[in-house]
Specification:
- By secondary structure, this protein is α/β, with parallel strands linked by helices.
- The chain folds into three domains: 2-143, no CATH class; 147-227, Rossmann fold (3-Layer(aba) Sandwich); 258-473, no CATH class.
- The protein is built from 17 helices and ten strands.
- α1 (2-41) crosses α2 (53-73), α1 (2-41) runs antiparallel to α4 and α2 runs antiparallel to α3 (83-109).
- The two termini are 34 Å apart.
Length: 474
């Protein structure tokens, strides 16, 4: 009975939240439709004009684009995102949709009208989105009071993995009333679960105990969350085999479908070539600035790994001193405070300009636009010693952007990078690639994505070998 009541209440809350989201969405599309009539006819009388169905088609196209970008940027992730993050995501979605529509209709008409009406609309959207994000987040918290939450973890390393669960803004959703360090069986933890918690987060426990906790949560209407092992991520890509009279799931090394591989390579070639042409002025200015500062080389070439452990020479704009690794030790950057980074290099890194020459690697076929971040062989070997599964990232070409680059950070530990990369490998498609390309635009404004490792660290490994081994055995 309690479970049914909790499920019914949850359904009502989701319905109310859905209605609020749809109100914003339809206002967004409605304002665009009116603006487009003004843009096309100079008045709102377009409904009476011949060919008014074209207006509907353009409006539907705009709605589809906004919906796609809203999904890409999690524009309606109320409760879990800050107000400014939500507003920025909505504005970015509308900006891209307006830009694509403007270029599409202009090319179709062979006429380039001044887009000042769309610019005014964008300003209206900014005001609307800020107000809506403020209201939407407040309404979400009104519908979802803080849940009494239990954290269960095996060791301090797993405790740190909870990350933003214990910080703003999610602390307003999940009030952590107890943290429990535990490494036992489900029967031993069950009495604790029966104390009336409304949410449970689990990290690092063995699979049998963890699955028991999650099943208990499902049976009793409790929200259950877990931080996955690599094995869990691999299982997401398992394929059901119908050749047997019992359920059988198969996992195997990923191989790209021929049609996807061909189309992906064509798109990589076309977009990298266009990128090099369009961004050539940026290349020139950046190169002059780097050369003028210390007279050193403009580009920095370094050996990296791509599919099947093949080595290639990655090309970047140099952002560090020429003698940055004079001791011969390969190490990651420690961020903006790294004294090896030049003043010009700080600007180049902040604007992500150092990554642009990788378009040359993509054009040559050594990398793809979307894929796992390419690692240095020396650093990868250190990861392999503690995480043998880290090699699974090399099932596909290295990429300029990807799950780990978008949703993780530069300093994310390699285990988390591996999980992100396997999530991408399990979900590879042209739509996924497209979403990640546009999602990359949002992180260009995020300082966290370039946060370095701790000073003195050679790699992003920040845990002991025995901890990681036990975590993998789980």
């Amino acid at each position: 009975m309690e479970t049914a009541r909790a499920s019914k209440n949850d359904y009502k809350m989701k319905t109310k939240q859905f209605i609020v989201k749809m109100i914003h969405f339809f206002i967004t599309v409605g304002l665009f439709y009116l603006t487009f009539l003004l843009f096309r006819y100079g008045s709102l009388s377009g409904m009476q004009e011949l060919g008014f169905r074209y207006n509907y088609i353009v409006a539907v196209g705009f709605a589809a684009l906004v919906a796609f970008f809203n999904r890409t940027y999690n524009s309606y992730l109320f409760g879990y995102s800050r107000i400014r993050t939500l507003a920025f995501a909505q504005i970015l979605s509308q900006l891209f949709a307006l830009t694509l529509i403007y270029f599409s209709v202009s090319i179709g008409w062979s006429q380039w009208k001044t887009p000042w009406l769309f610019l005014i609309l964008l300003l209206v959207y900014i005001l609307l989105d800020c107000a809506f994000s403020y209201f939407g987040n407040g309404y979400y918290f009104h519908l979802n009071p803080p849940r009494q939450t239990l954290l269960i973890y095996r060791n301090e390393r797993d405790r740190r993995r909870f990350g933003s669960v214990t910080g703003k803004p999610t602390e307003r959703l999940y009030k952590i009333v107890k943290e429990l360090k535990f490494d036992g069986t489900f029967d031993e933890i069950r009495p604790e679960l029966e104390k009336g918690y409304e949410a449970v987060f689990v990290a690092g426990l063995n699979s049998r105990c963890r699955n028991g906790i999650l099943k208990y949560c499902e049976d009793h209407g409790i929200r259950g969350f877990f931080l996955p092992h690599v094995g869990d991520v691999i299982m997401q890509g398992a394929q059901h085999i119908q050749a047997f009279d019992t359920p059988v799931m198969m996992v195997r090394r990923k191989t790209l479908r021929p049609e996807y591989r061909i189309v992906k390579r064509i798109l990589d070639f076309v977009f990298s070539l266009l990128g090099l042409i369009v961004l050539s002025p940026v290349f020139l200015i950046t190169a002059i600035a780097i050369k003028a500062y210390d007279g050193g080389p403009v580009f920095y070439k370094q050996t990296r790994l791509t599919r099947d452990s093949r080595e290639f020479r990655i090309i970047k704009f140099r952002s560090m001193r020429v003698d940055a690794e004079k001791d011969g030790v390969a190490r990651l950057s420690t961020g903006e405070n790294d004294d090896r980074i030049t003043p010009i290099g700080k600007i180049v890194r902040k604007c992500r300009l150092d990554e642009l020459p990788q378009l040359i690697n993509i054009l040559k076929g050594e990398m793809s636009i979307v894929g796992p971040r390419p690692e240095r062989p020396e650093i990868a070997e250190k990861y392999y010693e503690q995480i043998p599964d880290f090699r699974l990232r090399l099932q596909v070409k290295a990429g300029l952007t990807g799950y780990a680059q978008v949703y993780g950070k530069y300093s994310s530990d390699p285990y988390e990078k591996l999980e992100f990369d396997l999530m991408y490998i399990n979900n590879m498609s042209l739509l996924t690639d497209l979403e990640l390309v546009f999602a990359t635009a949002a992180i260009l404004f995020s300082a966290e994505s370039t946060t370095g490792v701790d000073a003195g660290s050679v790699t992003a490994l920040d845990y002991e070998e025995d901890e990681l081994n036990s975590r993998q055995r789980a």
